Amino acid sequence: MRIFVLLAIFCISTAAVAEMYKWTDQDGKIIYSDKPNPNGSSEKVKGPPLTTYKPTTPQKKITFTPDTAGKNSTQNRVSYSTFSIDQPANDQAVRENTGNVSIIMSISPGLNSSRNHKIEIYLDGSKKAETSGLSYQFTNMDRGTRTVTAKIVDGAGKVLKTASVTFHLQRHSSR
Questions:
Q1: Domain of 24?
Q2: pLDDT at 45
Q3: How far apart are the first and last CA of the chain?
Q4: Are residues 86 and 29 part of one domain?
Q5: What is the pLDDT of residues 110-135, one digit of tens each?
Q6: Which residues contact 115 (CB under 8 A, 6 or more apart)?
Q7: I want to staple 116 with a disulfide (CB 3.0 to 4.6 A). Which of 43, 58, 76, 155 is the partner?
Q8: Environment class of residue 57 by beta-carbon count within 10 Å: exposed (0-12), middle (13-18) or buried (19+)?
Q9: pTM above the 0.70 mark?
């Protein structure tokens, strides 16, 4: 599969830089080709300009050293612009007969584990886990309406950002 993908990329990239030729055949039809007319009467056609990408310059990276890590300056604070629980969606009905529910979160910028930041996960107000990853799996949950809260906390336990979602777990009940 990998070879197929690489071959497809190669073919697409070579087609993007190929020259184009145009000529009219003896029946009056206009012919376009990547090769010149074998009879010699063809003109080069200039295609549209290629799309280019100019990367932006990265923002200055702040590094923390032991002498500046403890200071309470705005330069050393990490601010998370977004933090959310993406799965399950808020007010979603989740049908899972085994009671296993995956929580998927997203954060920007990434979690700063070098400053001992971590994510605490709560289920219905009760702390269930601490993680530095962006996913967590609840197992054998009881059915019903559940609320999951995720909190980004620093090394001192201060809450930096919170995300919450309520979902409805539907499990088959045996009688």
A1: 2-45
A2: 80
A3: 48
A4: no
A5: 888 888 899 999 999 999 999 988 99
A6: 64, 69, 78, 154, 155
A7: 155
A8: exposed
A9: no
| Distance from C-alpha of 27 to C-alpha of 30, rounded to nearest angstrom | 9
**Residue written as token pair 């993406």:** 86
Mean pLDDT confidence for 51-79: 58
Please state the φ and ψ torsions of residue 28, each to the nearest 5 degrees.
90, 5
Q: Say what percent of the chain tops pLDDT 90.
A: 34
Please state, in angstroms and as integers, the Cα–Cα distance from residue 138 to each residue in 23, 84, 118, 150, 168, following that order: 67, 17, 18, 13, 14
Which residue type is seen at 65?
T
Reported as type and span, the H/E element at residue 12 is: helix 2-16
Which structure tokens are listed for 65? 């050293």
Tell me the CB-side half-sphere exposure of residue 125, using CA atoms within 13 A.
1
Residue 59 domain-assigned? no
The pair of structure tokens assigned to 98 is 């085994």
* Strands, sheet with 126-131, edge to edge from the N-terminal-most edge strand: 92-95, 159-170, 144-153, 118-123, 126-131
